[in-house]
Amino acid sequence: MSAFSAIDDEEQEIDQNDFTPGIEPQATWCPGCGDFAVLKALKGAMPELGRTPDEVLLVTGIGCSGKLNSYFECYGYHSLHGRSLPVARAAKLANPGLEVIAAGGDGDGYGIGGNHFMHTARENHDMAYIVFNNEIFGLTKGQTSPTSPKGHKSKTQPHGSAKDPVRPLTLALSSGASYIARAAAVNPRQAKNILIEAIEHDGFAHVDFLTQCPTWNKDAKQYIPYTDIQDSDEYDFDTSDRREAADVMYEAETKIHEGEVLTGRFYQETGRPSYGQEKRAIGEAPDQPLAERYFDEDAEWERAVDDIAAHHT
Amino acid sequence: MRSGLHIYTHRHYPSRIRGGHTYVEVRAGDEPVRSRGNGFDFLLCLGDSFGRSETEGAFYGNEELKPLTEQFDELNEGGVIVYDSGQFDEADIARTELAERAEENDWHVYPVDLRSIAREHGRAIMRNTAGVGVTAALIGQDLSGFEELLKESMSGEMMEANLNVLQDAYERAQEFDMSHDITLPEGSHEEQHAMLTGSDGIAYGALDSGCRFISGYPMTPWTDVFSIMSQKLPKYGGISEQVEDEIAAATLALGASHAGVKAMSGSAGGGFALMSEALGLAEMTETPIVYIEAMRAGPSTGMPTKTEQGDLEHVLYSSQGDSCRIVFAPANVREMYEQTRLAFELAYDYHLPALVVYDQKLEGELRSVPVSFFDREPDPDLGATLTEEELRDAAHDASGKFKRFQHYPDGEREGVNPRSIPGQKGGRFLATGNESSPTGHISEDTVNRKRQMERRMGKLESVSAELDEREASNQATYGDDDAAYGILTWGSTQDTAFEAVDTLDDAGHSVKAMGVSDLMPFPDREVTEFLESVSECLVVEMNASGQFRGLVQRELGQFGPKLSSLLKFNGEPYRSEEVVAVFEESIDGGQPDAQNVKYVPATGD
Predict the structure, then answer these.
(1) Which among A59, A64, A123, A301 is the top mutation candidate for probing chain B, defined by the most B β-carbons within 10 Å of its own β-carbon?
(2) pLDDT higher than 70, residue B55
(3) Of the residues B13, B304, B477, B580, which has the maximum number of CB atoms within 10 A of its CB?
(4) CATH code matching the domain that covers A16-311, chosen among 3.20.20.80, 3.40.50.970, 2.10.220.10, 1.10.10.1590
């Protein structure tokens, strides 16, 4: 009998409104903010995934995106700027039954947390990572971010940014993510479906979610016109082919600065074991969820004295 | 140890990629040994193990001769030198003026061609075994113990060759014309002993606490704990994660703990600097965690393989806002085991970070401890945690959210809200690094803020009271209760100070010592009583600014005029004679003439 009965509880009926917190039902993002679309898509995904609030651990970073935890009812961990991934991946290792989702902004994930992004992707932890990409620092009021286009002027880059922006999809691919997609707030149906796929994916699923910032990034507006690459004849490619995926990512990351927004699934690697599976296969993680052991009254705990008598005398 | 003696070792190694003068001090006695002692009686000098260091214009000086020359100042009168004459050139030996110095100090020098003995039976690298054989013969120890060890750790041809080298060297040395007067003391253990480093003490303490998750990044001198845990955890059903940096290391451990596992992380000073934000997050989210901090000589990269106690203020105050953490500084293997266990217990009972701070000295210092000391039950208890059944009766908000951070929790310990674990039905809540309301939602309400701060900080007072009530104090005292003078110290310096007390006692001084382990919360009562009972006190620590003396004054707000400081920050641990000398010269207002150490008189003196 599991100590965590919310996990895989098939008896409970699920309504997406279960994910609206009674405490903060209304999000305080600016009117027209793309973040609303992430919240809506995520809530919409849950009934289809068959998950209840008590079996989901949502780990966020800091920024407007981090407030997602206040507006989405589940177990939440609103961590530090850039640090959602390390918290999330350890929680998943500790209890693989949990549905672990990490989320943050572009500054959070591609800037201050870039190292964690790279390594979490490399290790292929079984989780979805949603990056609210608005190409700007919103919460701190409009500074240039790692995805801001070259030449972007802000209070901290008064002569325009001299830096080329990060290419997040390519970065995820070369780091080792096994599912990579881009969604946009203006296309909620596609966004919901991508989130469902990302969460169901057994490995590290990176979703670069374009969330327009009407307050601080007037240039980005609504991320329109957009093209769903799966619906477009122009981008007929095999999403399981790494090289082809890289080419289309290149197109997407170039065109976004030329006024065309390409969204959809860019890379889907199937059959690759997740990090947890790898660890269990080589005997470096227990087969039973580690967290269960602490609640198991019959669990036998190894004694150090046996080791000491055997190896130190 | 197997021959019934008590053992103590200290290892010296340079912060170098390869080579360099590396050596281990071994001290053995029929009574428990507390420190590296004062000088050596016996020097087994193998020389440069690579045997191919450049000598012309070498930045590090003449490496080949260092094993001899670097030790001259520390070899006691009447001492023995065995050196490998197959390794050292006679002309070089002459340049060291070994003969003249031996004459002057009554040293007994035995040149032995260890290299040839090793080659005769195996390979040159086995000359260390030859050295052991010669040493055993010269101090009157039979070979059975060494043979046993070789058989346990080797097999096949390798083992045979080493056994032959050992035996041959032993027999040859028996033939020497022995002029020295140094023999191994005889001792016996009433029970089985084990030899462990301080790093072992921490690792076994953690494992016996039910810790089954560690995340880390290598950094000397913390790497030992991390490696031991990484090798043990798979067998103990746990998980070890080597990650991209210390920021991730500290944060992963929080994720594992939050998900219901007893977890730890750690680093040396430099890596710990990267952990400060996670430390604060643990304090704010009330996520139980144990962090280990291994000190080495700083600032910055400092001297990576050399010891110091310079991170005291770093571990106490690192991270923004008011500190709300437990910090223990154990002094030896036993205390490292005990206090690591206690750190886990309190961290999980009170939902705050508990830190264990130690140093390079303790990291690799081997000591013999009775095995029975470790014969106790593991403690996998998750502390203040609810089961699903208990959660059903716990306080929830109208919308069904668990009140994880109530202002006045009704749990067993004041200020502590027993927690739920993700995946438990009915336990969902928000943990945030922001100030939060009872359900964990972000709140900047002034009344809420004040109450939550008071509640969290109040947990430290409860910890303090609990520590005070415990039968066994973490502070160790030594010497005559009624002594007139005091020596106060912390962490790894403790047992050396205790040894100094014995020497001072023998010399007719009235002195006692206290070694403090509880750095936060500070043991006000115990230290106050100690300081009130003495007329003057020498505070002994290994840093340059007297951080511990500062802490005592900050915590107690008095005793300034009573407290003088003895500081050492040259990278080596104290010898007890250094403490003895400065104590004797400084009491009653003297000004010590200290070589390797620094004396700072009491304020107002």
Answers:
(1) A301
(2) no
(3) B580
(4) 3.40.50.970
